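Translate structure to sequence.
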């Protein structure tokens, strides 16, 4: 795929870190700006296709979360709170208006927490393969075991196992480039950063109570074959957000924007037009 559309690679200093991001400018003054937030342990490259196909009157930004991609690790202490506060400062520093957050998985946790902390900044939310609940004890223990495994066997073994869980069976066979991109983005992350993020995920707060306060329409997307987010978790979002639309994408796992970008982009752009 040729990614030479009017997209710029940029960096900005925020507190103790440098944040790397892609900016796709709109051809007219932007009516909205979509900020894309990637999942763990990926980076902003997972959103290239979405940036490319945004409507002309919408600008798009895909950020590398602290300690991921080309953003620096900073003081090395991570939490979903820290990620959300980074995002808020980023939006304020760039003076972004009419911001719509599009978060997948961990990106969704960050989006929900940022909206809890600074609701006045946001005009829309796209929540893909994510949920509002905190980790159960069982899920926490699983993350601790993953940390031990990463420390013992390294990133390569982790990447191989992880990739199998985030794509649908069909995608694993047909989406070779996307699978390779995700595998390499996992391997590019520092081991320390992977472990710090696993702790951040395990310690995140529950944002379910604040869902009913979201005043604008939200789009919820779920891959029908997602192994990491349950139907029940998705239903909690749908039932608690007053104006929520749920779209389930067939033959997709945890990464529908990569597995079926045509459908994902159609749903996203339709939502942006109606907002």
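Result:
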């Amino acid at each position: 795929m040729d990614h030479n559309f009017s997209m710029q690679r940029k960096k900005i200093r925020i507190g103790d870190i440098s944040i790397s991001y892609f900016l796709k400018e709109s051809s007219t003054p932007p009516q909205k700006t979509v900020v894309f937030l990637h999942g763990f342990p990926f980076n902003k490259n997972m959103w290239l296709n979405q940036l490319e196909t945004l409507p002309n009157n919408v600008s798009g930004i895909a950020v590398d979360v602290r300690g991921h991609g080309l953003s620096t690790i900073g003081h090395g202490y991570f939490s979903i709170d820290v990620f959300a506060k980074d995002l808020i400062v980023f939006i304020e520093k760039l003076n972004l208006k009419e911001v719509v957050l599009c978060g997948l998985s961990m990106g969704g946790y960050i989006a929900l927490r940022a909206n809890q902390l600074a609701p006045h900044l946001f005009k829309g939310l796209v929540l893909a393969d994510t949920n509002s609940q905190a980790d159960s004890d069982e899920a926490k223990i699983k993350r601790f075991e993953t940390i031990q495994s990463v420390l013992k066997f390294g990133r390569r073994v982790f990447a191989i196992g992880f990739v199998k869980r985030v794509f649908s069976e069909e995608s694993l066979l047909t989406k070779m480039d996307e699978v390779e991109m995700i595998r390499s983005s996992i391997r590019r992350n520092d081991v320390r950063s992977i472990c710090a993020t696993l702790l951040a995920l395990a310690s995140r707060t529950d944002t379910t109570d604040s869902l009913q306060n979201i005043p604008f329409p939200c789009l919820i997307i779920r891959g029908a074959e997602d192994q990491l987010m349950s139907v029940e978790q998705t239903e909690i979002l749908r039932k608690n957000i007053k104006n929520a639309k749920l779209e389930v994408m067939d033959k997709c796992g945890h990464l529908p924007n990569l597995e079926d970008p045509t459908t994902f982009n159609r749903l996203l752009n339709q939502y942006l037009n109606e907002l």
